[in-house]
Amino acid sequence: MPAAWGRKPLQKPVAEIVDDIQRQRARRAIFVDLNLIADKHYAARLFEALIPLRLQWYGLATTLLCYDEELLDLVARSGCRGLLMGLESISPDNLRSSSSSSKAFNDPARYPEVVEKLHQRGIALQGCFVFGLDHDTPDVFMKTAKFAVDAKIDLPRFAIVTPFPGTQLYREFDQQGRIITNNWELYDGQHVVFQPAQMTVEQLQRGTENAWKHAYSSMNIVRRLRHTAAPWHVAVMTNLGYRYYAHRLNRFYTCDWMLNPVPTGDGSAGPPNHRTEAGSDVVPTASTSDTLP
User: Which of 23, 131, 170, 276 is most buried as measured by Cβ atoms within 10 A of its Cβ?
Assistant: First the structure.
């Protein structure tokens, strides 16, 4: 998100990242960069340095990684076990539109190939889609959810287009009179805060909820588990967690609670505890690049 973070990439020296991991004696790590392969030369140096550490790591990348098999093989050798990718939409028209032009390189026809290449290397995919783009019609929700299941995406995730303040999309929608609320608490990716182009606000809200419920129905969880690249116990746990979330979207409008829920006084799961202690299996931010190119 250049509007939020700027366009100048900030890269942490690879040696410092390796030192951080070794000092914490970590076995697993999460890289929170928006796109680990934004600078492929830097990424290759990082992945090479991770190989001797025998680390299992997770991060974010784009589908372009799967079209560079040399780099993809290096990612797998370095210990990658899961990636989040913004697939955005199954509509080429949406991907070419101004509101999602940063993902114009995505090709929905090749999404199954992306999943297959990752799975061949033992890498699970969390594939993220957004609803409410201008070419979306009321049938987009079931089409996308069914596509995600058929494509064998390990963890499909669905969000609603959100025109965050300060972005070009917000300015466009504001000029068009399509912003319906400035309650910033609702700008969370799961509430509708603008007037969609080809459906009602209610259709967008309910359609997104229905997509979640379809993808995480018992039958479709089983269908995807048959092909998952994730360890069986991890795949089952995460799918059941998302199923719980899918049926309680009115209570949990972000998925962060699933990462580390903290028991509350009434026995329910509260917001995550972000404290990291020495010796933790998960390395906190080991950022390589703060922006997409």
Answer: 131
